[in-house]
Amino acid sequence: MSMLNLFGRDSNLQLDPFTRSALDTLTAIPPRDEQAATRGRAAFLAQATAMKPLVQTIVAKRNAFKSLRILIFIIGGFLFGGATAAFASQTSNPNDWLYPVKILTEDVRLSMASDARERLALLIEFSDRRMMEIDVANVDTVKSRLRDQVDEALRIADQFRETELQNTTRANLNRMREVAARTFVVTATPTSQTKHIASPMPIPSTTPILWSGSTSTPTPIPNIQPTRDVIRATITALPRPTFQPTPKLRETRDTIRATITALPRPTFQPTPNLRETRDTIRATITALPRPTFQPTPNLSETRDVIRATITAFPRPTQAATPDLSATEQAFRATTEALRNLKATAEAAERNARATLVALLTAQAPSSTPPPRFEPTSTPSPVVVIRETPRPRPTPAP
Amino acid sequence: MTSERSLLERARAFDLDALTEIYDLFSPSIYHYAARLIGDAALAEDCVTETFSRLLHTLKSNNGPTDFLKAYLFRIAHNWITDQYRRSTNAVSLDEMNEEMEHEIASNEEMPIQFVAAQIDAAQVRLALMRLTPDQRQVIVLKFYEAFTNEEVAAALNKPISAVKSLQHRALDSLRRQLHHTIEVEA
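ok -> structure tokens follow
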């Protein structure tokens, strides 16, 4: 291969002839050893073959982990997106594209309601929503859904007796009736079905709900007046019923009262036997002698003897205590005398010792050596002169 | 480029056919590159073996190039040669080169004078190349012997193309000075 051909690939290269000829000397390469090349190729393929199972395992794990990550990402995306859409859809109207999500979330909440009271509260809340949506967009689907929800709410409310309902539930029920009244005005002519709304009692289960026919196929609604003021005015104008018991009930009540009045009132009369017995017991008790406490003569005599003995016993007088100060002074004088006697004895002992030393010194000859000490069979008595130790004077503070 | 990428994808899965194709395609160039820089056939074979072994380990750990496979292989080979020279203290001594030439002269009976002159010139140029910095040496070798484009050289050096161009000019200046210095010393 010529150097000129190589340089020709890049027009920016400006090589002087000296450098070009110098580089040209390395162009020629000795031919490669074929056996060495074959050995290198075989070694490379053997290494690749040995690593292949391990690599396949690693790749399988890597792909599984990658798939898991993608799955987690997708699920997380769906959850996050769904939660966001559900949250954003709560304020949507029937014309919005998120409105189906709102309906779906309501259905889910209704299906998850475990209690009839909870379901009733949800239905009231959703019915209110439908009424507000009808104000914004008067759509048949919304009205049919409102009708279904009101029907179901009244059916659930019918399951409770008046005493079972708490204040809150009762208030919800009243609101439910109000919603039903609104719905009636909106969906039908007021004069035809006012009687259904006017009932203050819970609607019996056998009573058909506001609309006849199946709830799944609502009939078209002729006159629609969505204005809330009109609805309220209509409800206010409705006559409020009063509770009037039926004549049959009244007769029954009167009969019961007369029967109760005619019944003889029982009085408590004690039986004669009991009275006699009581009187007998009282007389017996009264006739019983009342015991009086009389001390026995022996005891009183004994008591008198004891008292006389105690009185005759000479009372101890307070004797004068010996004079301790005199005893203390006598003890001190004795101690002082003993101390003086001890000092006299010590002085006599010192004088005797000095006299003995003087005598021994005067009798001993100066030329003769002192007698040599030789042990004898009978030891001579040893005189031990002990000097009692004297207490050291304490230094003055 | 698309075929090279598909080849690399198959190689990542350790497809033996793809690996064989890669070896057959690039091992001669790697050998020539190593033999030209080192001047030793056995070491050049070692360089080829080590280069492709490192490629296998790189593919196993799911790393390595997605394109410019040739440039990537030359970068591995160049790093191996640089490390080899750093480890060897007397790898670039002229005395050892002369001993190798004497051995080759003894085995080559035809035109010994021309052969010796060519070997001396090659040793001087190789020595001058070895005195360059690794990047300068690689630019010159890849550009003037392996016919790499600037883009391929940039991929091999992991540098931008503008840096490769300036590096190439500095490499040529430095090589020229080294060659003049070698000739003056010989004179």
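Chain B has a mean pLDDT of 82.
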